[in-house]
# Entry
Amino acid sequence: MKGKPNVLDAVNLKETSRATDLKKDGTNAEYKASGAYTLNSGGAAPEGAPPKSGGRGQAAALRDMIFSVLRAMVTLAAAVIVVSYLWMPIFRIVNFNMEPTLQDGNYVLAVKTSSFHRGDIAVFYFNNKILVKRVIGLGGDVINIGADGAVTVNGVALSEPYVSTKSVGKCDIQFPYTVPGNYLFVMGDNREASMDSRVSMIGPVGMEQVAGKAAVRLWPMSEFGIINRTTALTNRGLAS
# Structure
């Protein structure tokens, strides 16, 4: 005996109809009693659902990080170039004139300064070249070199531990020699081979020629360290 459909039958009918509609729409969603949908692959996210965190976001973050690192590296490189050009130039030793103190191929960081002491190592320009020599005398000093290569400054003999072999070397100036004011009298530690202030072609070095004072040996790393001026010039009564 057929009667009126009860409320439960009406609800079931409504749910069956809704499930059929969803299947036709191709959403492949499972309807839950709470009203939310769990989507299978290919389905569209319901309105208000949080966005997916996919590979695009990770790629963008990685790209931003790489750009930030590159910007920092470029900024650092620019700062190093400016500092090197203005205050701390770097030079490469290209000969044997300062052996055994500095070797061919060494890289040296210099400090720009106009203040020099006897025993410092000066870096200066000569005929569009960079020369590196040790400061032996300052303006007003009287330099003398004996036949055996022994050097005196203002009558005080120098004990030069940085020189392996003393020699008059290449020399065409007359001794004793008085260093002009605001000039440096320089000599290479390799006295036999060095072309320096003992040769009139080079002569004393004017302060306007000076590029800096050698301060740190940068390369090779095994010899990295500060280049200290020798104390041999002061330990025998000669003020620096």
